[in-house]
Amino acid sequence: MVIGFKDALKFIGISVVVVCAAFVCTLFLNYDLDIRGLTNIPDEAIPLYKAHLSMGKAIAGISGCGLALTSVVLLVFYLKNYIDAHGKELGILKAMGYSRFSVARRFWIFGLSVLSGALIGFGVAYLYMPTFYRVQNADGILPKIAVGFHFELLLCLVVLPTLVFAGLAVLYAFYKLKAPVLNLLRESQENTIKARREKEGPFLKGLRLATLKSKKLLVFLIAFSAFCFSSMVQMSLSMPDLASETFAWMILMIGLILAFMTLLMSLSSVVKGNAKTIAMMRIFGYGYGVCSDRILGAYRPFAYVGFAVGTVYQFILLKLMLGLFFSDVNVPAYTFDWKALLIALFAFVVMYEFILFLYAQKIKKLSLKSVMGE
Amino acid sequence: MIVAKEIRKFYGNGENRQEVLKGIDLTVSDREFVVILGASGSGKSTLLNILSGLERADSGSILYDETDITGFSDSELTKFRKKQVGFIFQQYYLLPHLTVEKNVRMGADLAGNANFAEVIEAVGLSGKSKNYPCELSGGEQQRVAIARALAKDPKVLFCDEPTGALDEVTGRQILDYLSKVQKNSGITVIMVTHNQNIADMADTVVKLNSGRVVEVRKNDKRKTAYEIGW
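^ inputs. structure came back:
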């Protein structure tokens, strides 16, 4: 069998995003379901009660949908990379007479990455729930809220996503495997044929553009990782004034995990996908610095655009949430937090440039012989 | 002049350690066409990689006009390759997402050669400079690889089985072009092949067997690509 459990392990990036999605959704939806069952709410607590009801659904909806969409994008990205990297094996199977479906159905195994992530996120959310409930009602305005287990959440947040993602993986593989056998055997030539005609210009400029155009999804992922970092870090820094410190930490951790995972995986993919180009440049006499600048550095502007969009997004989101859900509750007025922006920007520059430096070292260690021998 | 002295190379560790090159001595004069001949596993590609600075020898020295490159750091080797050598491989290794022109400029820009269009024309591909490698035949792709190598004005051109993936007609065309370029521009060509017929085109033939030079032969007269057998 071409596809095994080891291959599913490579999809750990999806698992991590799903952990975050399942954690946030389980936490807030469970809270939402539990506070719905509250009775005898004092009149003075009703605005807060309503705010909590709306907030739970909004946060679960916004972050859950966002993370679910990210997972779908990541899944398609990894499946495409997997099929490109294993085109030869898949082509041989097709050439031998295996039907498209008989090969594609084995891709269900990638649903396991979602299952493992969802189970972990779901479990951790239940472990954290007592603390979360206590913090949410720290002032004791609402009656005591007991943590309840809701089977429908297990179904909707663990079982269903697993089945959907496994099905999606099979369908996507089925679609991609419609390529003729020879195209699969000759590596992904389809992309190059579809590429737009280049303008005249120096090689290095052309290389930078071609690198970006060849994997547009990577541009999105790198910008997305910066977006996550920017929005979540700034939100968490503004949170203690607006909500609880625990909530701020939670947002910060999710933001950092998402940002790091997406960035590391995207850059790994950049280096891996361009290994032959880098090797060829090195053979011809281009220095390490030029190689890493042209290949890795091509994505830098998009990372900073992602950071800027994240800044605007978190400001609008906090403003809207406070305006819509907490207008009747006594919380401080929210203005743009310049201090949070500066701290987040500084941390991002340090993190991003350090990771780029690490990957530049990885490029340095690429063995020319092994790359050319592949 | 290139002088290789007592080149040794090992692969693997412990019990699996194998000596691939067992003390190679070799001298290549300027403007010479040298063919390194040997069966698969004889160490010919390893020798080519070491001579060109792509790989390091475990012992021995390689002198380019009395400069020993074996002690070079990685960045010095990069500069050396940039200024001195060009490469042509059996599998072409063109950059698939770049057009013919951009692939050739990869070499030309390094040398500051603005006449890359002339090189493309010289290999007969001026009409296809905007095409991508996958839109070309094997022979055309190899011609792009040759143009890319020549566009950087190398002093030494290293060719690793350049016709290995080509049919006879295309293979002869490529060899004919390489031979003419070598004669006209006066660059040194070191070509690795397992095809004994190609050896007749060279000034010097170095025969390798199991990591040792077993024969060095000078051809009185070089045959053309259309005179050799296939």
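Chain B has a mean pLDDT of 90. The two ends of chain B are 31 Å apart (CA to CA).
thumbs up if we can close this ticket
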